[in-house]
Amino acid sequence: MNYSRLKIWFIVTFTLVVIAVVIRSIWQIVVIPTPGTMLIFIPLILALLAIDALFAYLAINPQKFKSLPFLIGITVALTAGLLAGVTHFVRFIISPEAEPILSKIIGSCVVLSCISAYLLVIWLIWSLRKAVKG
To answer: Cα–Cα distance between 128 and 29 in angstroms, integer?
Structure first.
């Protein structure tokens, strides 16, 4: 069975979401062009574009998941996304919008889970790489 239509469907679906988030992020940079905004949204945009490209690449050629450049690309994209998230969290905690204690608790839980997930994914990627290589 030929899965090319299904692959294209997955790529288009994911790319549409990425385009929407990238447009919204660029809009945020244009509306509030501060260094802090740029520090959050530029890595976020780059991470989203890289993840979209990696997702499309994996959908087209799933055997390449074992290649070192692909794994490095995933790692770089995840790192940029985590950097943007942690930067946003640090700026959020000191802002007036984080006045209620529940906002700080929720934000802390989200950042801690993101850091934990990041470490888990990095460990999984590189341990799979070792298993495939060795």
So the answer is: 38
3-state secondary structure of 59: helix
Q: Which residue has the tokens 């509306």?
A: 31
The Cα–Cα gap between 18 and 51 comes to 9
- The number of beta carbons lying within 10 Å of the beta carbon of residue 41 is 21
Identify the three-state secondary structure at position 2. Answer: coil
Structural tokens at position 17: 């979401």
What distance in Å separates the CA atoms of residue 33 and residue 29, rounded to the nearest whole number? 5
* First-last CA distance in the chain: 32
Q: What is the pLDDT of residues 44-100, one digit of tens each?
A: 888 888 888 887 887 787 776 677 777 787 788 888 888 888 888 888 788 887 777
